[in-house]
Amino acid sequence: MIPIADNLHIMNPIIANALKERDPVPLKKTAEHCRNVNAYAMDINLGPLKHNAEEVITFVIETVQETFEGRLLLDSVQSEVLEAGITACRKPPIINGFSLEKAKLTAILPLADKYQTEIIGFLINEQGQVPLRAEERLEVASQLVTKAEERGVSLERVIIDPVLVPLSWQDGARYNRELLEVINLLPQFFAKSIRTIAGLSNLGAGSPDRATRATVEANFILMLAAAKLDFILMDVTQKSNLDALNLSHLLLGEKVFTWEEVKS
Amino acid sequence: MIPIADNLHIMNPIIANALKERDPVPLKKTAEHCRNVNAYAMDINLGPLKHNAEEVITFVIETVQETFEGRLLLDSVQSEVLEAGITACRKPPIINGFSLEKAKLTAILPLADKYQTEIIGFLINEQGQVPLRAEERLEVASQLVTKAEERGVSLERVIIDPVLVPLSWQDGARYNRELLEVINLLPQFFAKSIRTIAGLSNLGAGSPDRATRATVEANFILMLAAAKLDFILMDVTQKSNLDALNLSHLLLGEKVFTWEEVKS
Questions:
Q1: Is A264's Cβ below 8 Å from some Cβ in B?
Q2: What is the pTM (predicted TM-score) of this model?
């Protein structure tokens, strides 16, 4: 399971302020941290940009790339932001993402063809909802891949996000149990390898304190790893997340097992 | 995932001494602990018994049953011990267990028919070995179930143990990665629900200290739960194991989710 940082997010007040002030320092610090923990990629989520959208995303990407050499996920619902971002990226970016919602199919998905990028496909139906049951989600996945292929985006360039939901939702845990099932079933459903991603930070939304949130995140990392998720989008400044990820690599033989590594 | 205690084991010096002295107190204490943590069952493993085998197993079972009202797993390779044990059990026992090894097929498996009990089937081949790859293990599972059915033991009465191995084995982590795969695949492989069990205490054999062992056990509990293992045989005196099991129940919606439960 490969870590992708979700730390460069508009909901973080430090990032929000850096954008307002065009201050590169907090962006560089975030990028430096992501580099230090060997994140494979960074997700860039600036929220809806009303003014100077192209200039803002270009500023952020150029700043981040001075420090972070991994890939970038461009997380936006604005096609003009995505296009400016794609243009500014030195390494092949990943568009994050599309779903069966009409606006996403018409405005976002075609960019993956136009710029020959990879793109994340959310298992969200036309009504903008996450289905509960695994079979319903697989049906959405099937439709997503069909739509992508119609637009010239092959299965190999789609990464499926089955949408992890907050535990505080009604039936949140049941949704996430079905999510694990979907991650397990997707490769055989498509009769070939398809990659998957999930965003961990949703899980603990509404938790009473940081420690409780850290507990559910760390433990769910092990579950996602057991289900063979490919990419995990998470807070890489949270040490317990990195520890859990490292343990998952050791327990699954994805790095050489030693007792010293477990203890460290 | 349902907990079964592996604490009544001859490798525990307190238990070994209690057997030698016919001292019921340590047996009762173990049984009391298993009752207090709501273990579904207790595994009774007295090792090979040379003298007074039937009397010893009867003594243990009668003592344990005074305190523990759950079910018992009878863990022995001696058919006379199993028969005496089955006769002493108040609740339906589970025989633990058989494999494709000839001695097990001829001496152990028939007891499940004779006494109409459930029986655990280890995914161990005729040569007494655990296959590495999931497909090989499924082939062993298929042969096991065929042998059981030939002997009058239906699929519903077989519980499959895909054999968790020590991380300290060469390729131990790879073996256990395949084990998770097998647990996931077994239900659809048999096109109906078949139950699974795994023994956790093997995992940390050879660990340098108790804390390291506790870490790998707790984390692997989450992975086994994600793979939808039915029964976990484990040390129920280890609080971190109980905490991990409780978290797995919360995260998978197997008990009502509250943040208070996560914190407790």
A1: no
A2: 0.94
Cβ of A205 under 8 Å from any chain B Cβ? no
Return the H-helix or E-strand segment holding B245.
helix B239-251
B67: nearest Cα among B34, B93, B31, B98: B31
Q: Which two tokens stand for residue A92?
A: 């092949």
- The amino acid present at A56, given as its one-letter code, is V
Residues of B in contact with A258 (CB under 8 A): none
Please name the residues between 127 and 186 in chain B that touch chain A, using a CB distance below 8 Å: 167-168, 171-174, 176-177, 180, 184
Which contacts (CB < 8 Å, 24+ apart) does range A97-102 have? A97/A121, A97/A122, A97/A159, A97/A161, A98/A122, A98/A144, A98/A148, A99/A123, A99/A124, A99/A125, A99/A128, A99/A144, A100/A124, A100/A125, A100/A126, A100/A140, A100/A143, A100/A144, A100/A147, A101/A126, A101/A128, A102/A126
| Rounded Cα–Cα distance for residues B12 and B174 (Å) | 29
Q: For residue A234, give the amino acid letter.
A: M
Is B257 near chain A, with CB under 8 Å? yes
Among A262, A263, A264, most B C-beta atoms within 10 A, so best to mutate, is A262
First to last CA, chain A: 19
Nearest to A212 among B223, B225, B259 (CB): B259
Chain A residues with CB-CB distance to B200 below 8 A = none
The partner residue sitting opposite A226, judged by closest CB among B212, B227, B254, is B227
Give B-chain residues touching A247 at CB under 8 angstroms.
Answer: 215-216, 219
What ipTM does the predicted assembly reach? 0.91
- Tens digits of pLDDT across chain B (264 residues): 999 999 999 999 999 999 999 999 999 999 999 999 999 999 999 999 999 999 999 999 999 999 999 999 999 999 999 999 999 999 999 999 999 999 999 999 999 999 999 999 999 999 999 999 999 999 999 999 999 999 999 999 999 999 999 999 999 999 999 999 999 999 889 877 899 999 999 999 999 999 999 999 999 999 999 999 999 999 999 999 999 999 999 999 999 999 999 987
| CB contact (8 A) between residue B251 and residue A173 | yes
Interhelix angle A13-21/A24-36, rounded to 10 degrees, is: 130
